[in-house]
């Protein structure tokens, strides 16, 4: 839920190609607005996004790229649950991202992010995330 802190990992003029959108969002403010809408799309939402298959490579001294696959899950409260927690995962789908990083004040930050949906759950068909989030009234 620390969306502001996550946005600090991006350059001010970040370019974000979001799933289901024909034009990129440009700038941290636009991306922050979208991420807040997705992250807090319903009261009490908790998520678990698990990145894997990282493939980093340096393009130049000032640019690096990464490709990653991400499992997207909501954590659903299960008050009668047994085991180690009171939440269970509900798979939303799988996404892939292509990312470009650049150094800023000695820290590598996101410059460009291109997300695409690989597979979606039944309630979230391929290509609908984030679009108009299906759980929004």
Q: What series of H and E elements makes up the topology? A: HEEHEEEE
**Cα shape:** globular
What is the helical fraction, as a range of percent?
A: 10-25%
Low-pLDDT residue intervals, each spanning 5 or more residues = 126-132
Mean pLDDT: 82
Sheet with most strands? 6 strands, mixed
Radius of gyration from the alpha-carbon trace, in angstroms:
16 Å
How many extended strands? 6
Range of strand content = over 45%
* Count of alpha/pi helices: 2
Physical arrangement of strands within the biggest beta sheet: 2-1-6-5-4-3
> Which structural class fits the helix and strand makeup?
mainly beta
Distance between the termini: 21 Å
Report what the structure shows:
By secondary structure, this protein is mainly beta. The chain has helices spanning 3-7, 28-39, and strands spanning 10-17, 25-26, 47-60, 63-77, 87-104, 107-120. Strand 5 (87-104) and strand 6 (107-120) form a beta hairpin. It is globular and about 50 Å long. The model is unreliable at 126-132 (pLDDT under 50).
Relevant terms:
single chain; six-stranded mixed beta sheet; 12% helix; globular
Give the topology.
Blueprint: H1 3-7, E1 10-17, E2 25-26, H2 28-39, E3 47-60, E4 63-77, E5 87-104, E6 107-120
Parallel strand pairs: 1-6
Antiparallel strand pairs: 1-2, 3-4, 4-5, 5-6
């Amino acid at each position: 839920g620390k969306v502001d802190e996550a946005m600090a990992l991006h350059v001010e003029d970040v370019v974000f190609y979001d799933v289901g959108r024909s034009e990129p969002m440009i700038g941290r403010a636009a991306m922050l607005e979208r991420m807040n809408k997705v992250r807090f799309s319903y009261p009490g939402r908790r998520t678990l996004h698990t990145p894997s298959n990282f493939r980093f490579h340096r393009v130049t001294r000032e640019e690096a790229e990464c490709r990653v696959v991400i499992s997207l899950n909501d954590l659903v409260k299960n008050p009668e649950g047994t085991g180690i927690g009171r939440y269970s995962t509900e798979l939303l789908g799988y996404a892939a991202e292509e990312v470009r990083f650049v150094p800023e004040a000695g820290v590598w930050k996101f410059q460009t992010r291109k997300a695409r949906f690989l597979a979606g759950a039944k309630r979230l068909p391929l290509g609908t995330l984030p679009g108009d989030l299906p759980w929004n009234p």
